[in-house]
């Protein structure tokens, strides 16, 4: 997790094109959809338009594509012809599933490609190609349009290519909509960035920032535990939480009324109930939550349950901090956690002033 202080440090290095930071971070530019290395010669984006990642794979999974000027998937000093050819090939057909004959067509040995990518970038070529497809799949489902509309608008020549990209992030093929249980997934734009909401017609199952690390694993666990197909679309709970989030960010709401479906152990649900009891504008330590659930020695387990919460903001895990007063961790990033706490405290103080 990259702290707020480190993000500022990285941004300073980005503006200065500091070569000492090469390989330490990559920056995703939200306004262009590309990610760059620290020394990219392109015009520098504003800080608020930057997302920082420790690896190129994280940037790819967040749907950013490699910058064509600084080529972040190439070593700053040298890159082999094998790596260069494969990176260019993937960018020409990012949705492609690579097979043995594709390597032979380029006169490239598969084991050589795997070894050189791993040595240079810390991930295999297959991992890179998969991450690129997954990033595309994220974009396909953001609009909540029908599967066929998404397929045609993105230029897929065959439905099989789209189904593969879709299934790699959602865990179920789009055609599996006739299963007994179906959950809908939609993107919700918020002041702090887009969020993914997953729900059926009765309740909200998941609400996470789309750039949260491991989101695809969360979706996969949800699909397996509910034995559901997850497809793009919207439901009444998704429409409800979208409206309530707008009110929350506008300072008009501190609690949420959308029905929730919490998948967790009895202990996790006990912790989440304790989180819901924390008033907006206030915080509790992990130890205080452990005391509240009657298990004062289980503060580490409380921290784990806090991190397992799949309903960001609605179940306010951001209101739990370290006993020292430090922010601690947060799946959506410490910058967002700090903003949420300040936002809620400001609204609480404003409400108190009006009451007085």
From TrEMBL:
EC assignment: 2.1.1.63
Cofactor(s) recorded in Swiss-Prot or TrEMBL: Zn(2+)
InterPro entries: Ada-like_dom_sf, Ada_DNA_repair_Zn-bd, Bifunct_regulatory_prot_Ada, HTH_AraC, MethylDNA_cys_MeTrfase_AS, MethylDNA_cys_MeTrfase_DNA-bd, MethylDNA_cys_MeTrfase_DNAb, MGMT
Keywords, in A-Z order: Activator, Cytoplasm, DNA damage, DNA repair, Metal-binding, Methyltransferase, Transferase, Zinc
CC annotations in GO: cytoplasm
Binding site for Zn(2+): 36, 40, 67, 70
Active site: 36 (nucleophile), 317 (nucleophile), 317 (nucleophile)
Family, per entry: Belongs to the MGMT family.
Protein name as it appears in the record: Methylated-DNA--protein-cysteine methyltransferase
Source species: Paenibacillus silvae
